[in-house]
Design a protein that fits this description.
The model has no long low-confidence stretch (mean pLDDT about 100). By secondary structure, the chain is of the alpha/beta class. The radius of gyration is 18 Å and the shape is globular. The protein has one domain: TIM Barrel. The longest helix is centred in the N-terminal third of the chain and has 20 residues. The protein is about 45% helix and about 20% strand. Strand 2, helix 2 and strand 3 form a beta-alpha-beta unit. It has ten helices and eight strands.
Length: about 260
């Protein structure tokens, strides 16, 4: 399977891309802070071409994402943000937009309100030829309901194993949603916090996860979503971190064979 990477803290793209290409990564996904920053996306596009890195996905803007499920102008404004995210995917050649499903239960979320807004997003993405992958965050109920509602072939699932471990412990998404899987966000943590460690540095059972990926017939991309935090800065260089990231991802790929 092809191997992709994003390091959203501690390593910039102009540093990451040459190192990642050297180690064997096929491409990257762009983080949420860039989703509506056209000038920055232009620079990323140029760096990607220079380093022959494929643009797998774009992560949608996160601030405001919970408002989509509640009454008020904030949810309508976030809808417009997602439309702009889709426009940028189309413009820069990112074939897929990852969208969070995370209602704020303190604000009396309404599934019907959220679905009404998301229907506009899904239809617009279809018109633009952009796929939508809904990502698991902290609500099993809402994620399952959203994917049950949108059965369109351009709508699918982004599996985040770190969120599964620390936000919804005990939930196993892949046996239920693996057939809808478009992409992965792979990283590790201690089961309490979303730390974005290298795989096998935390408590996630990657043997189980790889067996579930294999069982659902997933054969697309394996994608890391990492943080070059102080934990790693103290013990390895950026180059060593990226090299180890590739080796960990290759290990997972081998575990699935």
């Amino acid at each position: 399977m092809k191997k992709y990477i994003d390091v959203f803290f501690g390593i910039t793209y102009d540093e990451l891309f040459p190192m990642a290409k050297k180690e064997g990564f096929d491409g990257f996904f762009s983080g949420e802070i860039f989703a509506n920053e056209v000038e920055k996306l232009e620079k990323i596009e140029l760096l990607a071409r220079e380093n022959k890195m494929e643009w797998e996905t774009s992560h949608s803007t996160i601030p405001g994402s919970q408002t989509i499920w509640s009454k008020g102008k904030a949810g309508d404004e976030y809808c417009r943000t997602l439309l702009a995210n889709i426009d940028n995917c189309k413009r820069f050649g990112a074939p897929l937009l990852v969208v969070h499903v995370s209602p704020d239960f303190s604000k009396e979320p309404s599934f019907d309100i959220g679905i009404g807004r998301l229907a506009t997003i899904v239809e617009y993405a279809k018109e633009k030829g952009v796929k939508i992958a809904f990502e698991n965050i902290d609500s099993e109920e809402y994620l399952l309901a959203v994917l049950d509602y949108f059965k369109d072939p351009h709508v699918g699932f982004c599996y985040d194993c770190g969120h599964e471990a620390c936000h919804t412990p005990g939930v196993r998404y892949l046996p239920r949603l693996g057939k809808r899987l478009f992409c992965t966000h792979l990283h590790d943590n201690d089961g309490k916090y979303d730390q974005h460690f290298l795989p096998f540095d935390g408590s996630i059972d990657f043997e189980l996860m790889c067996s579930e990926l294999k069982a659902c017939g997933y054969n697309k991309n394996l994608t890391l979503e990492l943080c070059y935090s102080d934990v790693y800065k103290k013990k390895c260089t950026k180059e060593e971190f990226v090299r180890e990231a590739f080796l960990r991802l290759k290990k997972m790929d081998d575990m699935m064979k």
